[in-house]
């Protein structure tokens, strides 16, 4: 039975007594309880029971798409060749830290979830992918994998891979391409029901947080999981809050918590002109919309997305047009460059926004940004351009008065101020991403 | 009894393969336009039966094989 409290702060990020980071297996098990996996590979009853539990839990993927985990598992049980489980902890979103925090504070929880998933779908191997530029998180999970191997506590071969840390390399088809010794570039998937493959084996890719939720559902059951959250989006989730808050960082919150309440828990410091939600391919929320419950449905209803759980608070006085131009330029640089509408369209939109930011735009610039956004939307192999377009459109709505003033040569006073956003250091090469994993 | 069904085709561009040669817009201007950078824009609606032969030819003539004809089932 569960001994966890229902404090929404204490599920995934439950403190492990004596260990701020990288708790060893024994301390992890003392905190979260034992996880019993069936001893025989063919324990079909356990596997069906766990599949049903994940389905009943209503767990939605935490990697951005919000796909139901149970439906994903169902699709992998039928295939002939034994699949592999890929743990996606790439975290390419610059404003996100949740997966790194999770790997640092609870690496065994992520690995437990991967083992549960691998057992249910009959996988033969687990591969954990952590970006090559995230040091402490990778060390933590590598130590946890080594400890489980020494203790013979792992039922599967587990390896840690270090793909290049770029924005698009965490997109699942790009990640799988890299695992196949090809460049980490997204692929066009005409039929998404056809599984990605590493070699000839189907690859089930799951975000690290999703699997850590699986580890808790396997212990405490779907009814416990549903004690938090909404019927459509049950459970807790991790949110990275930055910007005009006193305590920037990763919080665990109940899904459905109003955005304003999350910001206040993070020490909201100022009146806001907008809040970036979801990620750099997310959307700006107007201050009047901050009562929106943080969950996929309510956020979609205001044109936003939960994404990977990012909130960036933009204080009054900062320039939303400047921040959006910075994001657009960064995202243009992170295009894989494979698809013309993305490779040419995103830099053109970034050019327009920078002109607008500087107050040098012509009167038709806003129309041109809207037109180019319509042109680019939906025309890449992956969703990279679509996310940028969503963000840009939301900026022109939320900061509409500012945008028009900029277009008339009157940029707002804050336009020369520092950014509240995080951007990685300029990478050494302009394009991702010569690939291939180490063996 | 199931409704009678037909098969239609719709156009799709493989954006990774496409290199903006533009032949498709020359051969099938009724259904393909080019954006300001020369890349084709198609919509996902079924191609009219009278244009299917031209669409098939446009797909075959693409140097990058980037214009795809997808079969879609339609009630009818």
Taking pLDDT < 50 over at least 5 consecutive residues as the criterion, the unreliable ranges of chain A are 1-8, 428-435
The largest sheet of chain B has its strands arranged as 1-4
Quaternary assembly: heterodimer
Whole-Å distance between the termini of chain B? 14 Å
Terminal Cα span of chain A? 41 Å
What is the element string of chain B, with H for helices and E for strands? EHEEHE
Q: Which CATH architecture of chain B?
A: 2-Layer Sandwich
Helicity of chain B, as a percent range: 10-25%
- Count of DSSP H/I helices of chain A: 16
User: Could you say what the CATH topology of the largest domain in chain A is called?
Assistant: Rossmann fold
The gyration radius over C-alpha positions of chain A equals 22 Å
What is the N-to-C succession of helices and strands of chain A?
A: HHHEHHEHEHEEHHEEHEEHEHHHHH
Please state the structural category of chain A.
alpha/beta
> What's the helical proportion of residues of chain A?
40-55%
Please state roughly what percent of the residues of chain A sit in beta strands, choosing from under 5%, 5-15%, 15-25%, 25-35%, 35-45% or over 45%.
5-15%
CATH top level assignment of chain B: Alpha Beta
The beta-strand count of chain A equals: 10
**Low-confidence parts of chain B lasting 5 or more residues at pLDDT below 50?**
none
Q: Mean pLDDT of chain B, as a whole number? A: 89
């Amino acid at each position: 039975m569960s001994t966890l409290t229902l404090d929404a702060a204490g599920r995934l990020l439950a403190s492990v007594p004596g260990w701020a980071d990288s708790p060893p297996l024994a301390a992890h098990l003392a905190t979260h309880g034992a996880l019993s996996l069936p001893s025989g590979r063919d324990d079909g009853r356990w596997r069906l029971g766990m599949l049903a539990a994940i389905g009943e839990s209503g767990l939605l993927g935490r990697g951005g798409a919000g796909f139901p985990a149970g439906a994903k598992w169902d699709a992998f049980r039928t295939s002939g060749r034994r699949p592999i489980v890929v743990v996606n902890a790439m975290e390419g979103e610059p404003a996100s830290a949740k997966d790194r925090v999770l790997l640092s504070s609870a690496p065994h929880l992520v690995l437990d979830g991967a083992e549960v998933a691998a057992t249910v779908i009959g996988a033969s191997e687990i591969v954990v992918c952590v970006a090559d530029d995230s040091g402490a998180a990778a060390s933590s999970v590598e130590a946890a994998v080594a400890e489980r191997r020494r203790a013979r506590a792992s039922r599967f071969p587990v390896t840690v891979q270090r793909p290049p840390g770029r924005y698009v390399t965490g997109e699942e088809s790009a990640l799988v391409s890299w695992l196949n010794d090809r460049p980490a570039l997204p692929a066009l998937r005409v039929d998404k029901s056809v599984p990605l493959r590493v070699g000839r084996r189907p690859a089930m890719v799951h975000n690290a947080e999703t699997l850590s939720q699986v580890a808790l559902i396997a212990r405490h059951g779907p009814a416990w999981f549903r004690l938090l959250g909404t019927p459509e989006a049950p459970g807790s989730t991790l949110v990275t809050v930055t910007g005009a808050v006193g305590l920037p960082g990763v919080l665990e919150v109940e899904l459905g918590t109003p955005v304003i309440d999350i910001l206040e828990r993070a020490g909201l410091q100022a009146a806001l002109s907008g809040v970036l939600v979801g990620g750099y391919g997310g959307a700006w929320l107007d201050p009047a919309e901050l009562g929106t419950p943080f969950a996929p449905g309510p956020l979609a209803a205001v044109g936003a997305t939960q994404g990977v759980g990012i909130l960036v608070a933009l204080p009054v006085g900062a320039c939303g047009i400047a921040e959006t131009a910075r994001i657009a330029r960064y995202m243009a640089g992170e295009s894989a460059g494979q698809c013309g509408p993305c490779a040419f369209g995103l830099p053109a939109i970034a050019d327009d926004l920078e002109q607008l930011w500087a107050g040098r735009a012509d009167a038709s610039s806003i129309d041109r940004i809207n037109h180019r956004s319509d042109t680019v939307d939906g025309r890449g192999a992956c969703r990279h351009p679509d996310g940028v377009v969503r963000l840009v459109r939301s900026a022109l709505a939320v900061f509409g008065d500012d945008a028009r003033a900029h277009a008339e040569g009157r940029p707002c006073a804050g336009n020369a101020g520092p950014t509240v956003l995080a951007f990685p250091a300029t990478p050494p090469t302009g394009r991702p991403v010569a690939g291939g994993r180490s063996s | 009894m199931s409704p009678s069904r037909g098969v239609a085709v719709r156009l799709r561009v493989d954006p990774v393969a496409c290199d903006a040669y533009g032949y498709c817009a020359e051969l099938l201007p009724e259904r393909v336009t080019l954006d300001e950078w020369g890349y084709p824009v198609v919509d996902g609606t079924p191609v009219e039966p009278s244009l299917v032969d031209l669409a098939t030819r446009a797909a075959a003539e693409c140097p990058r094989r980037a214009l795809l004809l997808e079969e879609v089932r339609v009630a009818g």
